[in-house]
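// run 5 | inverse folding | seed 20
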């Protein structure tokens, strides 16, 4: 057995809160406060960086005007955007695509079925992933989280 392994066995487990003395408690609390202050400073820096960048904070509401999904994608634009798949009265899936018409058709997409309806927002290609993540977080569509399909 190496020297380091022997030394590990010599150290007792750290004391619980009740076993600590007053000075040990004070030291521990000061150390934890220091960690929290560093975390707060890091979060504040991240927030200020995001605010000062060209971050787009204002997102439109999820569009509720829908079209029926077809095999050809006739009414769907050939532009980049975020799309919303509606099944019954609920939001089933949110996705992004560089060409909505090619992606949002029956038989091309695993989450789009006959009878589903579709709505979309046109989004610049550079903002697709962030915008999709925002709407997944807001809409909480069940198919994005791998849950079983709901029956109609």
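// decoded
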């Amino acid at each position: 057995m190496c020297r380091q392994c022997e030394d590990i066995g010599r150290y007792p487990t750290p004391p619980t809160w009740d076993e600590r003395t007053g000075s040990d408690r004070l030291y521990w609390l000061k150390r934890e406060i220091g960690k929290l202050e560093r975390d707060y400073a890091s979060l504040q820096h991240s927030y200020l960086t995001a605010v000062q960048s060209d971050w787009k904070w204002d997102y439109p509401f999820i569009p509720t005007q829908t079209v029926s999904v077809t095999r050809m994608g006739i009414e769907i634009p050939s532009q980049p955007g975020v799309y919303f798949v509606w099944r019954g009265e609920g939001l089933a899936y949110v996705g992004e695509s560089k060409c909505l018409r090619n992606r949002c058709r029956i038989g091309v997409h695993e989450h789009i079925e006959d009878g589903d309806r579709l709505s979309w927002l046109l989004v610049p290609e550079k903002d697709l992933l962030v915008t999709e993540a925002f709407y997944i977080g807001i809409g909480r569509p069940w198919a994005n989280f791998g849950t079983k399909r709901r029956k109609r």
